[in-house]
Write a structure and sequence with these properties.
Number of helices of chain A: 2
Strand content of chain A: 25-35%
Structural class of chain B: alpha/beta
Helix content of chain A: under 10%
Strand content of chain B: 15-25%
Oligomer: heterodimer
CATH class of chain A: Alpha Beta
Shape of chain B: globular
Number of helices of chain B: 17
Largest sheet of chain A: 3 strands, antiparallel
CATH superfamily of the largest domain in chain B: FAD/NAD(P)-binding domain
Strand order of the largest sheet of chain A: 5-6-7
Number of domains of chain A: 1
CATH topology of chain A: Alpha-Beta Plaits
Chain lengths: 105, 557
């Protein structure tokens, strides 16, 4: 798995012509299903670039590494403000690390 | 499939670093000039820069000059580069970096306001948002950006390029775009070789997996002259997650160590320059260590202090968040365990190495009406992102000057019908070859016979002859490729493009009968560098009539 979409959080970006993750994915992998929830059409085609993770305004998408790469789980989320990117990373024990990094002048 | 007709002055194919800068340059010089940017994904987060970037690696610090930059690139590439092109880039590097800073990119600075030196030719940036920053600037111009339109072929009347076809993946339309000038600024080619990660992780690769070499392939198909494809690029990266090693080696000065803990460049490779060796030898030495049973190899990050570890993680989040995730998964930060490194599969690129269109210093290709910039333009390696910006600006200025007294050309309806039936044919076919099958076949052939990871990148005429034959066979089957939906059609088109790129690549690899660049181009059958015969460029032109690739030698310039 490369990204995990939490369907209980995803609101499908209702009101927009396409979901934000769908609009942004450089590989055209995200789409909105019949229930107005985001889906990824092919996990194996994901570059793990985290563009969808950053774009989601309700943080419904987590970045994870494919099992092939690591058999322990960890996950990463991001939130963008106007000039900063705020990253939250949970390690395999569930401990959280946070980074706030400037992203534009 | 409906057809959408668009007419413009300048068409830019590929809204990446070079393409964005081309659009900005046209607007700056001639705001009333009509510009269309054709972008495969969404311009805000497409291609190489989608994840972000943590350094600009082509910058002229005060103690250097554009000429010293050219000398550095010339040394790195064993005397075979287009010095004329690299010089045009080097002269404007600092100017474009300043421009992007003004658009909003944070760059690390000294107290006196000058850029802080990260490496000899490098500055540290906080570039997670670099692509959105560039895109935003383009959106403020009058350029029309066509997102989710995939370039499929140039519109070519046998004499000049008159525009391009695109496939709208969202609206399932064929775009017919007529233009007075076309700038090709697409990315290089990934996915030519079997990747180091396969199956469920097959796209966890260094280069953007959707950079399919489409710009090269479209040029090859109309007989544009291509250069130096044999100068493949193989980055030395953090194993599995492909994070850049420069972030550690240049950013926090860590050494490359083998499993015995030896600084192996210093211990065993002094004859190649030791720790100050060329980039290619860092990879070569790592491979040699594996053969000598002294692998795995690492970057020794165990001596980092708290502050350095934090900076390293931040730098990676700005460019390659996967490695931070890997550390979290393993409960191992870089201080607990050194970072394992290895070479990836080979790529065909014009930004790190020098594959691409043969261009003049104004970035005209050999086909009238067609200009190339960035990864598409050959002969100027180590241009990286800032060099792509410069080339975008140069190509745009040239195109603007050249179109002064031209008009768009009428397009023969039969050419449009032919492209439409090619695309709809792939969609309508119910029996045939899937993009998955085509991709796996291509990657297997290239891996096994054209120096992939399974053969330690080694090349030999006997194997390349086999590759040529197998690729010819595979090429014959490209008109049987089928797709079940719009998304799948793009995958099918990518496969076709990659096969065209691979065929040209194999001819280049076969033609250069020496070993010029370690690992990138190492011949078993010609293991020595041969300056007497090969201080020259290897170029090629595809002959549409005979379906053969003609090789051309060009003297150094």
């Amino acid at each position: 798995m490369s990204i995990f979409i939490d369907k209980t959080i995803c609101n499908g970006c209702k009101g927009l012509p396409e979901a934000r993750c769908e609009r942004i994915c450089p590989g055209n992998l995200c789409y909105r299903n019949k229930n107005m929830k985001a889906e990824i059409r092919d996990q194996s085609a994901c570059w793990t670039c985290a563009c969808c993770v950053k774009e989601c305004p309700v943080q419904a998408i987590e970045l994870r590494l494919p099992f092939q790469i690591c058999s322990n789980s960890a996950s990463l989320k991001a939130r963008l403000t106007k000039d900063k990117t705020i990253w939250s990373i949970w390690n395999s024990q569930g401990e959280k690390e946070e980074f706030i990094i400037k992203a534009r002048n | 499939m409906d057809i959408k007709y668009i007419e413009t002055d300048i068409l830019i194919i590929g809204g990446g670093a070079a393409g964005c800068f081309a659009a900005l340059q046209v607007y700056k010089k001639s705001p009333r000039c009509k510009v269309v940017v054709m972008e495969k994904a969404h311009i805000e987060r497409s291609g190489c820069l989608a994840m972000g970037l943590n350094a600009i690696n082509a910058y002229i610090h005060p103690e250097q000059t554009p000429e010293s930059y050219v000398d550095f690139v010339d040394r790195e590439f064993e005397g075979v580069i287009r010095k004329d092109l690299v010089l045009t880039i080097a002269k404007r590097l600092n100017e474009v970096v300043k421009e992007v800073e003004a658009l909003g990119l944070p760059i690390e600075k000294n107290d006196d306001g000058t850029y802080k030196k990260r490496g000899s030719r490098s500055v540290r940036i906080f570039g997670e948002r670099l692509k959105p920053i560039l895109a935003e600037a383009v959106m403020k111009t009058t350029a029309k950006v066509l997102n989710r339109v995939v370039a499929t072929n140039f519109i070519y009347d046998g004499k000049k390029v008159c525009g391009a076809f695109g496939y709208g993946v969202r609206d399932n339309c064929l775009y017919v775009i007529r233009a007075k000038a076309v700038i090709v600024s697409t990315g290089g080619a990934s996915g030519i070789y079997k990747p180091i990660n396969t199956g469920g992780a097959r796209h966890l690769m260094w280069y953007c997996p959707w950079n399919a070499g489409t710009g090269y392939a479209m040029g090859i198909r109309i007989g544009a002259e291509m250069t130096s494809f044999e100068n493949r690029f193989i980055p030395l990266r953090v194993k599995d997650v492909n994070a850049p090693t420069g972030t550690i080696a240049v950013g926090v000065y860590s050494k490359q160590v083998n499993a015995l803990g030896e600084d192996y460049l210093g211990c065993h490779y002094q004859h190649l320059g030791g720790r100050k060796c060329l980039t290619q030898y860092r990879l070569f030495a790592t491979l040699e260590e594996m053969k000598a049973c002294r692998g795995p190899c690492y970057l020794d990050t165990t001596n980092l202090n708290d502050e350095e570890e934090k900076q390293l993680k931040e730098d990676y989040l700005n460019m390659n968040p996967q490695i931070v995730l890997l550390w979290a998964s393993n409960g191992m930060g870089p201080r607990k365990k050194p970072v394992e490194i290895r070479g990836t599969e080979p790529y065909v690129v014009g930004g790190h190495c020098q594959a691409g269109y043969w261009v003049d210093t104004e970035r005209r290709t050999t086909i009238p009406g067609l200009y190339a910039a960035g990864e598409s333009a050959g002969g100027a390696p180590k241009k990286y992102v800032s060099g792509c910006w410069v080339e975008g600006a140069i190509a745009a200025s040239t195109a603007l000057n050249d179109i002064d007294d031209t008009s768009t050309t009428d397009i023969d309806g039969a050419i449009i019908e032919k492209e439409k039936s090619r695309l709809s044919g792939i969609l309508n076919r119910t029996i045939g070859i899937t993009p998955l099958d085509a991709r796996e076949r291509l990657q297997k052939i290239m891996d096994e016979y054209a120096g992939g990871i399974s053969f330690n990148y080694m090349l030999h005429e006997n194997r390349l002859l086999e590759a040529r034959q197998l690729l010819q066979c595979l090429h014959k089957h490209t008109n049987e490729v089928m797709a079940v939906d719009n998304y799948n059609l793009v995958e099918a088109l990518e496969c076709i493009d990659r096969i065209d790129v691979a065929r040209t690549l194999v001819e280049h690899l076969m033609y250069r009968k020496e070993t010029r660049w370690a690992c990138y181009q190492t011949r078993w059958d010609y293991p020595q560098k041969d300056d007497e015969h090969w201080l020259k460029y290897v170029n090629s032109v595809y002959d549409i009539e005979t379906n053969e690739i003609k090789m051309i030698e060009r003297p150094l310039q």
